[in-house]
Amino acid sequence: MTHVTGTLVLAGTPIGDIADAPPRLAAELETADIVAAEDTRRLRGLTRALGVHTSGRVVSYFEGNESARTPELVEALAGGARVLLVTDAGMPSVSDPGYRLVAAAVEQDIKVTAVPGPSAVLTALALSGLPVDRFCFEGFLPRKAGERLGRLREVAGERRTLVYFEAPHRLDDTLAAMAEVFGAERRAAVCRELTKTYEEVKRGGLGELAAWAAEGVRGEITVVVEGAPEAAPAELDAEELVRRVRVREEAGERRKEAIAAVAADAGLPKREVFDAVVAAKNAAVTGPGKGKGLS
């Protein structure tokens, strides 16, 4: 007979406005066998606000005890318990405790599901006014200046929109570092206190935002940065265009196809490449550079 295990439930919690709590959250809090909370005091505030009572055992599960407590929770799951994991705000495991427990549960073939809830990442993206069709989440940057610059340089050419979390007291330094690496004119948005009373979205160039943040900013911060612009095609002289056509011809391509391919790669009209090839051919026949062009 197949052994039936419990279920790990990752529950999204409000990032600000308690009215944004997903409807299923209250039911899960009341019925879970174990509620693992990043901060048990914050959990009590959440249950009071929702008007619910937890019937299961409440344990803390935060960065400091995540490694030690994971085996205990996996053992409970293997025994059939329903374990609810909540963090202070947003989805567990997204820059919050949870990844280790999910990975351990998956390894033991334990069911993992979720109660979807508010996300600071997606909310900030939607409000930023920047492209959202492709993006990447970079979490928190290193606290040390050198490591922070190194991490930013790794993504300096990233074309997708970038999303970061940052502490308010480090925001000015982070924006200044971004302006240094990405350019002061790169567009960005600083999203502060999302869904709360003093919600604010400040948009502008990174240099402008760094100057604004130097005056002091409070609250929980999400930074959205425009991706790197598409690099302009390198300008190629006629000699280089001819060389590229010759290489393709020597590889077996017909001249017409070779010219079309070189033009497409260089972002040039086919006629421009064709004229360079003809000029090189004429020069090879009549001029001192005979033998260096196309025959």
Give an account of the 3D structure.
- This protein is α/β, with parallel strands linked by helices.
- The chain contains eleven helices and ten strands.
- A five-stranded parallel β-sheet has the order 3-2-4-1-5, sandwiched between helices. Strands 6-7-10-8-9 form a five-stranded mixed β-sheet, with helices on both faces.
- The longest helix is centred in the last third of the chain and has 17 residues, at 270-286.
- The radius of gyration is 28 Å and the shape is elongated.
- The termini are far apart.
- The model has no long low-confidence stretch (mean pLDDT 92).
Task: Break the fold down into its secondary structure elements and pairings.
Elements: E1 7-11, H1 23-31, E2 34-37, H2 40-50, E3 57-60, H3 66-78, E4 82-86, H4 99-107, E5 111-115, H5 120-128, E6 135-140, H6 145-154, E7 161-166, H7 171-182, E8 187-192, E9 200-205, H8 206-213, E10 221-225, H9 238-250, H10 255-266, H11 270-286
Parallel strand pairs: 1-4, 1-5, 2-3, 2-4, 6-7
Antiparallel strand pairs: 7-10, 8-9, 8-10
Helix pairs in contact: 3-4, 6-7, 7-8, 9-10, 9-11, 10-11
Provide the gyration radius in Å.
Answer: 28 Å
Beta-strand percent range: 15-25%
Tertiary shape: elongated
Order of helices and strands: EHEHEHEHEHEHEHEEHEHHH
- Please count the helical segments: 11
Major sheet: order of its strands? 3-2-4-1-5
What gap, in angstroms, lies between the N and C termini? 79 Å
Q: How many strands appear in the DSSP assignment?
A: 10
Structural class: alpha/beta
